[in-house]
Amino acid sequence: MLYVRNILHIVFDFYFIYNYFCRVNINIRILLIEETTIMAIKIYSTPSCGYCKLAKNYFIKNHIKFTEYNVARDRAKAEEMVKKSGQMGVPVLDINGKVIVGFDQTAIERALKR
User: pTM above the 0.90 mark?
Assistant: First the structure.
């Protein structure tokens, strides 16, 4: 009886471990799918802008990739920014086509959830 109980215990442990790792594997796959969702995030900024730094730090802290354009140096990107936002103020954030002027964390989070 001891022998059968040990075998059942080993089988149960194997089943538990197998199910645990399968669930972990499924969760990893789901996370990978969520991570591969492409977000086109552009930040139009200048080096001396404090709100631009806040916006960039927000994305860095949350591990969100973005493309930064320095409109003080790049005239073409500055014109692109004005066409999108209708103004010269920075930062201008373009999150998948949703334009946000200034650092508005609530609006950024709403745009990211789309």
Answer: no
